[in-house]
Design goal:
Structural class: alpha/beta
Number of domains: 2
Number of helices: 7
Order of helices and strands: EHEHEEEEEEHEHEHEEEEEEHEH
CATH superfamily of the largest domain: FAD/NAD(P)-binding domain
Largest sheet: 7 strands, mixed
CATH class of the largest domain: Alpha Beta
CATH topology of the largest domain: FAD/NAD(P)-binding domain
Strand content: 25-35%
Distance between the termini: 25 Å
Radius of gyration: 21 Å
Helix content: 10-25%
Oligomer: single chain
Number of strands: 17
């Protein structure tokens, strides 16, 4: 049985940055890389982004390359151990926490849930084939790749409206395809209606993705302008996220109605002393790699303060 000061569930950018700060504070730290509940490699969800242009220090870098740089930097610290093991169970035992994986058990005085979230996927034919080949989930990350092209946002929420407005600053045409009524906030609806590049299609489902080596078109369940098919270059799916908070809930960590872990936004602590959360799994309003990194580093600092007290 190994004993640590700080145990991090999840090895995305948030978890890796938090580990580095913990090590600098002298904490023996373990990162369980497969704890986010997806099949993503070390580096997490950013590895699925082709080009990143909004992370400080890098004018343009692939998401996979950025993740590898974070991983390599973390491995430079002797106090950090990264294991590609999936956490199966987390328990509270008096004044420490025990995490069981398929390969062993690990005890820690404090714990950080950086388990992230997974995108809700549109489970229709072609969705897997064209992921990263025309299908994206982040306009802020990938919009520049579709300059002067035709794209669609699938979703009817305010998030979909924000994606569309951003995409319209790059693409020549943006469709918003909502399965029921398009219902953004009023301020964003005004922006949408004022932008001649954006066209709303309500009460319509996308039933499939078509193409060759890349996405070329989508099929619809209703006729739109005489056709059930729209030719385009890219699709941005904005139908929501699924926070990976299951393990946290098992030890009594409070979550909100969206299943996001509720944290104190000053110190990243949950309702359980010694338990912290950061990144996409939390109830933070604005979620980006850089904000997750910030909260992860904050968690490491306060975890160290917790141990000292």
């Amino acid at each position: 049985m190994s004993r640590y000061d700080f145990l991090i569930l999840g090895a995305g950018g948030t978890g890796l940055a938090s580990a580095m700060y913990a090590a600098r504070l002298g904490m023996k730290t373990l990162v369980l890389a497969a704890s986010h509940g997806t099949e993503l490699p070390v580096g997490g969800i950013i590895t699925t982004t082709d080009i990143v242009e909004n992370y400080p220090g890098f004018a343009k870098i692939s998401g996979f390359e950025l993740a590898k740089k974070l991983e390599e930097q973390a491995k430079n610290y002797d106090l950090i151990m990264i294991k590609e093991e999936k956490a199966l169970e987390v328990k509270r035992i008096k004044n420490y926490f025990s995490v069981k994986t398929e390969k062993g058990s690990y005890d820690s005085r404090t714990i950080l849930f950086a388990t992230g979230a997974k995108w809700k996927k549109l489970e229709v034919p072609g969705s897997d084939k064209f992921e990263r080949k025309g299908i994206s989930y982040c306009a802020l990350c990938d919009a520049p790749l579709f300059r002067d092209k035709v794209v669609a946002v699938i979703g009817g929420s305010d998030s979909a409206s924000k994606e569309a407005v951003l995409l319209a600053s790059y693409a020549k045409k943006v469709y918003i395809i909502a399965r029921s009524t398009f219902h953004p906030e009023e301020a964003n609806l005004k922006k949408i209606k004022a932008n001649k590049k954006i066209e709303i299609i309500e009460g319509t489902n996308v039933t499939g993705f078509l193409g060759d080596d890349v996405l070329r078109s989508v099929t619809l369940d209703k006729v739109y302008k005489g056709k059930k098919q729209i030719v385009l270059d890219g699709v941005f799916i904005a139908i929501g996220h699924i926070p990976l908070s299951g393990l946290a809930k098992e030890i009594g960590v409070k979550v909100n109605e969206k299943e996001e872990i509720v944290i104190n936004h000053q110190n990243s602590e949950t309702n359980i002393p010694g338990v912290y959360a950061a990144g996409d799994v939390t109830d933070k309003g604005f979620k980006q790699l850089i904000t997750g990194v910030s909260d992860g580093c904050t968690a490491a600092y306060y975890a160290n303060e917790f141990i000292k007290k």
